[in-house]
Amino acid sequence: xxxxxxxxxxxxxxxxxxxxxxxxxxxxxxxxxxxxxxxxxxxxxxxxxxxxxxxxxxxxxxxxxxxxxxxxxxxxxxxxxxxxxxxxxxxxxxxxxxxxxxxxxxxxxxxxxxxxxxxxxxxxxxxxxxxxxxxxxxxxxxxxxxxxxxxxxxxxxxxxxxxxxxxxxxxxxxxxxxxxxxxxxxxxxxxxxxxxxxxxxxxxxxxxxxxxxxxxxxxxxxxxxxxxxxxxxxxxxxxxxxxxxxxxxxxxxxxxxxxxxxxxxxxxxxxxxxxxxxxxxxxxxxxxxxxxxxxxxxxxxxxxxxxxxxxxxxxxxxxxxxxxxxxxxxxxxxxxxxxxxxxxxxxxxxxxxxxxxxxxxxxxxxxxxxxxxxxxxxxxxxxxxxxxxxxxxxxxxxxxxxxxxxxxxxxxxxxxxxxxxxxxxxxxxxxxxxxxxxxxxxxxxxxxxxxxxxxxxxxxxxxxxxxxxxxxxxxxxxxxxxxxxxxxxxxxxxxxxxxxxxxxxxxxxxxxxxxxxxxxxxxxxxxxxxxxxxxxxxxxxxxxxxxxxxxxxxxxxxxxxxxxxxxxxxxxxxxxxxxxxxxxxxxxxxxxxxxxxxxxxxxxxxxxxxxxxxxxxxxxxxxxxxxxxxxxxxxxxxxxxxxxxxxxxxxxxxxxxxxxxxxxxxxxxxxxxxxxxxxxxxxxxxxxxxxxxxxxxxxxxxxxxxxxxxxxxxxxxxxxxxxxxxxxxxxxxxxxxxxxxxxxxxxxxxxxxxxxxxxxxx
Length: 762
What we know:
The chain is of the alpha+beta class. The strands form six sheets. Strands 7-6-5-4-8-1-9-10-2-11 form a ten-stranded mixed beta sheet. Strands 19-29-20-25-26-27 form a six-stranded antiparallel beta sheet, with no helix packed on it. It is globular and about 80 Å long.
């Protein structure tokens, strides 16, 4: 092509170009004075759990940030983790962006897809256009877990939604000593174990420091967003034993005294009005003194584990804040510390040492809890506290996470920014919602919300900025009404008034009782004014329905069992055969073979040399629940681990050298209709197979009735927290070629049980 042709480069070489504007795109510049942003998001931490919100739990780092900045008493969330994260990330209501309920299932309706819509850009996507580098660390949980496998799709993972780096986990929860970790778009093994002092919270802070340090080394001129979402304090409540035991004495007085003490501190701080009344105990919660001495001892330790987990997280956060100070970026870093919803009711009335047993119908009586009291918070526990302590966490509010009363949706929120927040230790009482965070940050940074992201037109921002209230304590609350909905529980706030309805599952929605509270005068929602102001209540209920229609809340659906069962069936469909070849990576639990409540056969194709070999062939789960097929002492072995109880079958003969098929055949011998609550579903047999021939068996009533584990599957090793009595990873020392899993068509799930277990996972 000649130099005078239309070729861009050839046509300009050696010539003077008239325009001074370069042909390449201009590099955008950061807004003047743009701050770094650090979001520290806790999980299932109640309104009163930070020390600066009335708790005796030691949180000096958070308390210091509050003393150097602001505390909000009217920050509201959406009652669940996925949903609050969707609102915080996008600046829209969670139903509007497709995350009306959980990321664990897709019911097909626009408001309930379990994944943030492309039309709802995230904060990271919005800031990226203004030179921000974005780092996501910790819990994500806003993409369907059926899309969490090795092939994705990755468009809903953090790197697909505007973040430049990711280190954390995709699920609602994970074991703190053996987490289900992802680095960018790849599942990885934890870098340590309980034995060598590993804990996920410390690891997440290490990675946050690494990302920011790398950023400063490479581009100190550009601002950054670091979104640090702890697993703390979602179950399992796990923390160093010495920290946990240090709280036994603190909470020995029980939840009734604790509530009173917390509210007294809150009143002294000015967090709640002096006339605030303490609500009656939540439904089903007994007085502390009505419990036996053994129960009180166990309950105290369970609360100590929760407290220890929060205390431990605060200690790790201190390292991150110290790093920001040491590197000179603290003054221009806007730090937000908050929780995603109220304290959780998933621990039930008695709490759990290892919840995995009861979820699979293996009871955990108080005598067993007491016997295992020193295991609480350790590597083979899946600990959660009882309703009474969750109630205390939410002081002085009613109900819990999942509910639209204050205990589910009113949370602590701390703001600190030395360069721009001159107020030191002040309180703000404005009503603020999770969807208001993005417009606030955009205003503080000085950039508009984009109309288009990556060619996709964007829906309007639905939240309202509360930036003015940061500087002005007298600034008004948001002007628009704010609706709430979760599993049929409903609510509407407007100008200091709140209408709210608790929905008993399975009951007609039209039978729900609506209550009316004047929150400006009744912080704790204890004085129902429905009879005194029926016209106001009627108008607010109508307004709720208008907002529900506007934001894709409808249809209302409280069918826990059906929705969870449908989602599992829809994902795996007719697939009943899996082949796992040697060399593959980790398989998350939601994309692993679903062997719950069914017959199935597992076979490992191996080559064994003249020397004795040992190790895991396939393992799904961890020390709290799962199964493992392995070779030990020359024998083929299978362990069915239900809540830490082991049903082990050993082969009746040793495995000779050579090429073999080593397996287990599981048969449901009694196929019954789903059991009554707490009952078991018949008997299953577990038969070991060597080259297709039986080699030992056992029968048991135990099995995977509702879940296998929330830890995933590996072949050739058990990568972290061992399912059985061996030291992880216990890699297979022979040659493993492949493992096949063939599932039979007799699956009959207890939908109600699955729903309860999945709800505890959120």
